[in-house]
Amino acid sequence: xxxFWDAMLAVGCILGLAFVGWWLFGLLLRPLPGREARVVLAGxxxxxxxEQQLRSFFWLRGLGLLRCxxxxxxxGLTPAGWELASRLTARWPGVVLWPxxxxxxxxxxx
Length: 110
Fold this sequence. Notes:
Blueprint: H1 2-29, E1 39-45, H2 50-63, E2 70-77, H3 79-91, E3 95-99, H4 103-109
């Protein structure tokens, strides 16, 4: 019976250390408080891979590792690509579609 409790204690310690390591790793990846960071995705063509990139950033946001707005920069989107980007901005909060040439103005406003 003593071996069982030793094994349970070892598993508990391993899980606790894994949690603390994950938490510290998350703190290293988060932006510093008071500094505003932005993720800028270049939208080209018909928006190939745009939804997958957004899903990966929202996965990071769900884990608490990302706390910044996401900007889709229109760098030559076709009408079909523009439609896709518009649907993605409507689906997810914090995603903005902006022309790449005016990106400096957008960042200066924020």
